[in-house]
Amino acid sequence: MVRAFLTSWLGWIRLGYQIVRAIPAAGWQAMPRRLMLLLPAWCLFGLLNTLHWIGFVLDEIFFRGYRDLTVQRPIHVVGVPRSGTTHLHRILAHDRAFTSFTLIECVLAPSITEKYLWLGPARLLRKIWPLRATGRTKDNGGLLPGMASIHKIGLNEPEEDFVILLWVHACFLTTMCTPADKTLWALMAFDRDISINRRNLIMSFYQMCQKKHLYFYGRDRRMLSKNPTFTSMLGSLRLWFPDMTLVICVREPERAVPSQLSSLKPVLNLLGHRQLPTGFQAQMQSGLRHYYDAINHHMQIAHHRRQSAIVVHMSRLKASLSDTVRDVMKLADQPASRALTAAVAEHNEQPYRSSHKYNLIDYDLTEDDIARYFAAVWPLVIPEDDDVSTGGIAHV
After folding, report:
1. pTM > 0.85: yes or no
2. Is the dihedral of CA 145, 149, 150, 156 positive or negative?
3. Which of 56, 188, 215, 332 is the right S-S partner for 287, CB 3.0 to 4.6 Å?
4. How far is CA 361 from CA 75, 83, 150, 375, in A?
5. CB-based burial of residue 28 (10 Å sphere; 0-12 exposed, 13-18 middle, 19+ buried)?
6. How many CB atoms lie within 10 A of CB 63?
């Protein structure tokens, strides 16, 4: 806890330094906008960090019971970005046997104390006056303009829980603010490029936050996590959560690369970038290539050690959601609830169709360029026998 506290505050100071260095990164014309956005955001980050650590201290006084909890049989949805991880995660989240971090929890309430302060009243109100769902909520674009067709963002939506790692400065999102920070880019090769001491600190903090979540939401529930960025830390996840079920979503690099670069444009545009920062595209391609390599490597290990893992191609997720969910639940040894079955049925009646548009040409790339760059890691090579479930896919 002490090391995490020091890391948090030293990281905040370092982030301020990196932000100052990054102010001119989008050109002189964008400097006023970047100053008005980044410096207040850094100050707000410091304020929230103060509140969170006060909450963590109070947790040790009033809610020490969380330490005795065990994160049992979590499910981690990882894989290549833009391969359907969000869609699969939010479908699975309909099952009340699972529980996931929400955006508001990651940002405002990582401690148990804050959960009771911020989330407790809303939780109590729902019990007194439960709201009935009337079908799909209207997609109003979420919190960030331009994200409606890419990734809907809502405070109470099940979200990528790597956001909670902001408080130990291990969240890849901050790369958008400081694109030249090599320390953040190293997170795309977590098990390879991050030191063992820092890996253990980050994983210990992450496990602690999961225990706090279960203490508040229900000790008998199973954590459901979704993080494409966690694809670089499959070894660490398996070490810290040995009984986890791993669901790996994949997609062809020639589609994943432009989709991922395009998906980051709204944030970069908000921060004043008219085009991708220098070196950003090359760093992203390198990181994605490592993701595919990590998947290949981990599935070979899972095959030999008979560990629970499944690979799902995005085309299968689109064409056969029912079968995909069935296979995931079977692998997780979890019977599907009525709510989950109903969510799948509703989707089958009104399938989701993304309006996100992107093209390799926008990034001066061709399919041949991508094929050469990813030749060593794609197609994936998955063991063909039945020791490891691959959702019907032996070679993806």
Report:
1. yes
2. positive
3. 188
4. 37, 20, 19, 20
5. exposed
6. 18
Give the model confidence (pLDDT) of 164-187 as tens digits. 999 999 999 999 999 999 999 999
pLDDT of 76 strictly over 50: yes
- Give me the DSSP letters along 313-325: EHHHHHH-HHHHH
* Positive or negative torsion for Cα 180, 184, 188, 189: positive
Q: Are 317 and 88 in contact (CB under 8 A)?
A: yes
180 closest CA partner among 6, 19, 374, 391 = 19
Question: What structural domains does the chain harbor?
Answer: 2-127+144-373 (3.40.50.300)
Q: How far apart are CA 162 and CA 160, in angstroms?
A: 6
Quick one: CA dihedral 16, 269, 182, 207, positive or negative? positive
CB 45 within 8 Å of CB 15: yes
Residues 318 and 340: their CA atoms lie apart, in Å, by 17
Question: Residues 141-167: pLDDT tens digits?
Answer: 444 555 444 445 555 677 888 999 999
Place of tokens 């009935």: 132
320 Cβ neighbours under 8 A, 6+ residues apart: none
The DSSP string of 177-194 is T-TT-HHHHGGGGHHHHS
CA distance 257 to 176: 17
Q: Cis peptide leading into 121, omega within 30 of 0?
A: no
Asked if pLDDT for residue 279 goes beyond 90, the answer is yes
State both tokens at 2: 């002490």
Q: Which two tokens stand for residue 59?
A: 């947790």
115 Cβ contact list (under 8 Å, min separation 6): 105, 109, 212, 216
